[in-house]
Amino acid sequence: MTTYRIFTKGKKLFMTGFVILVMWASGILYAHEVKIPVIVDTDVALDDLRALTLLLQDDHFQIMAIVTSDGACAPRTGAVNILRALKFMGFTDIPVGVGRVLNEPAPPWRVMSEAMGWGDFPAIDTTVIFKDAQTVLREVFSFRDDPVVYICLGSLTSLAELLRSDPVVKKKISSLAFYGNPLSSPELSWNTARDTLAVREVFTFGITVRCYSQPDSLLLLFDTHLYDALTRCSGTGAEFVKKLHEHADVQKLLKSGHFIAWDETPVLCLMEPEIADYNPVKGHSSVFSLTSLDLKSVREVYMRNYTAGDFTTLKVRKAVIFEKIPTEPELLRGDVRPLAADLIHRYGLEEWYAVLLTNELHRHLGIYSILGAKMGIRAREILRASLDELDVVSYASLQPPLSCLNDGLQAATGASLGRGTITVENSEPSPRALFIKGTDGLILKIKDSIQVQIRKDIAQAIAEYGNLTPEYFSEIRRLSLRYWLDSDRRYIFDETLTRDKVVD
User: Fold this and answer.
1) Which of 246, 315, 241 is nearest to 88 (CA)?
2) Structure-derived torsion over alpha carbons of residues 289, 294, 296, 298, reported in degrees to the nearest 10
3) Domain range for residue 431?
4) β-pairing, 148-152 with 61-68?
5) Strand, helix or coil at 303?
6) CA 19: distance to chain centroid?
7) Which CATH number characterizes residue 109's domain?
8) Is 455 in contact with 446 (CB distance < 8 Å)?
């Protein structure tokens, strides 16, 4: 039987649905850092929560809603635990809906799923009134025109009910990633068997479906080695996973090799489509079943997600052309070489990349261009914005040297003139910019004391070496390196949050 890959070397993609997936789940990410909207449907087992953590840590995905199903947890208890997890990880604005209770016995692992490890997580008001899953799903689809990836880590009950009542919704689902298997499988997986009628219904709607349930031997083992490696990482995600597995009974299962990266698998495959092989399911032209995984790559994707940083810090950008953006001393100019390690240690890789790219774009080391990069990085931190997510209005004008700020703003935020996401106001020049994310606005301005020092330093350079001479640029380069090293982006700007899109 032929094995199909989402990506093949020298061969065409085998179906239109996967072309769409590739555009969404990989190609667009390298062109511009666009967030892929997803809905998570979960019965809130431990592996579901690990999968949710992976999604929350990846800037390429935006969770539009989470709905719970009847499985590892009862739907309402699962919703309460989801809220506790989101509160711990700092994502309190994601809507959560409660699915329908099934007339089926609870699984034997429900007690562990509902109770283990939750003692150390934030408490919430247990009397909270949740919307039902159907209401939450309808609300999400009612205001979205672009398609959503539906990730189902439990039964397909909620999705089947939604499609049954509103079949047009299928046009707003780009693909379904289901941790289950087809009904034709010799042995049905838990999520499939939990509601076989729902599986039968959903598979007839023509949605591109990928089924990920496989024998444990073909999936990544979530063992003590992987767990220890994850918990040695810094950040809220690592701390969450550590606390989730601290209970003695969970640790016993972990050490016995019980846990597999079951529900993490569809999420990891969405993050890196090339790691998976699929076969079409007989009798369903739009349904495909996972056949094999590159387990070494799966583990690397898992670890890379945790080493990218904290929820509250910026994720390191993926290079478009480079295999990686250089940090090695031997690849750097002589005056930058001794500073590189200190710069990266103080300000992180994302600022390093932004300033490096700024200076290559700017064609020389400049004070304002470097501070523009720091300003853009700081704005992304405060607004929790990934690359390409901000609109920027610069008030640095089009006159050097102040206008050099604009190059740094573009490199750091991804806002560009070519895509019309940055505009430059050319009246009343000022070293400030307005950053807009949705309805939120942020004004950053270089502090007056720093502006005075910059003007003094530039005037001194002109007095000693003349304006725009080789010696002048050499001195500006030296000064720029000093400003790069000494200017902590947390303390060099006046910061004003605003919902207004006009700066007086």
Assistant:
1) 241
2) -40
3) 329-498
4) unpaired
5) helix
6) 21
7) 3.90.245.10
8) no
First to last CA, the chain: 67
147, 245 contact by CB (below 8 A):
no
Query: Strands, E, within 264-390: which ranges?
Result: 276-280, 287-293
Cross-strand partners of 221: 260
**How many whole angstroms separate alpha carbon 258 and alpha carbon 25?**
31
Q: Which of 291, 346, 353, 339 is nearest to 477 (CA)?
A: 339
Residue 100 lies in a domain: yes
What's the Cα-to-Cα distance from 451 to each of 230, 271, 454, 457, 496, rounded to whole Å? 43, 43, 5, 10, 18
275-300 burial, b for 16+ CB within 10 Å, e for fewer? bbbbebbeebebbbbbeebeeeebbe
Domain check: are 275 and 377 in the same one? no
Last residue of some domain: 277, 294, 311?
294
Say whether the peptide bond before residue 401 is cis (omega within 30 degrees of 0).
yes
Domain assignment present for 76: yes
Query: Is 323 part of any domain?
Result: no
303 found inside a domain: no
351 and 451 co-located in one domain: yes
Query: Does residue 370 contact residue 408 with C-beta atoms inside 8 Å?
Result: yes
Q: Over its length of 504 residues, how does the chain's per-residue pLDDT go in tens digits?
A: 333 333 333 333 333 344 344 333 433 333 344 578 999 999 999 999 999 999 998 877 889 999 999 999 999 999 999 999 999 888 888 999 999 999 999 999 998 888 866 667 877 787 889 999 999 999 999 988 888 999 999 999 999 999 999 999 999 999 999 999 999 999 999 999 999 999 999 999 999 999 999 999 999 999 999 999 998 887 889 999 999 998 888 999 999 999 999 999 999 999 888 899 999 999 898 999 999 999 999 999 999 888 765 555 666 777 777 777 888 888 888 899 999 999 988 888 899 999 999 988 888 888 999 999 999 999 998 898 888 899 999 999 999 889 999 999 999 999 998 889 999 998 889 999 999 998 889 999 999 999 999 999 989 988 988 876 767 788 888 999 999 999 999 899 999 988 544 444
Domain of 372, CATH number, reads 3.30.1330.130
* Backbone φ and ψ of 241, nearest 5°: -65, -40
Pair 173, 41: CB distance under 8 Å: no
Q: Do 290 and 406 belong to one domain?
A: no
Same domain, 265 and 359: no
The crossing angle, in degrees rounded to 10, of helices 340-362 and 367-383 is: 110
Contact 174, 24 (CB under 8 A): yes
Give me the number of domains the chain comprises. 2
pTM of the full structure = 0.66
**Token pair 């901000």: residue:** 390
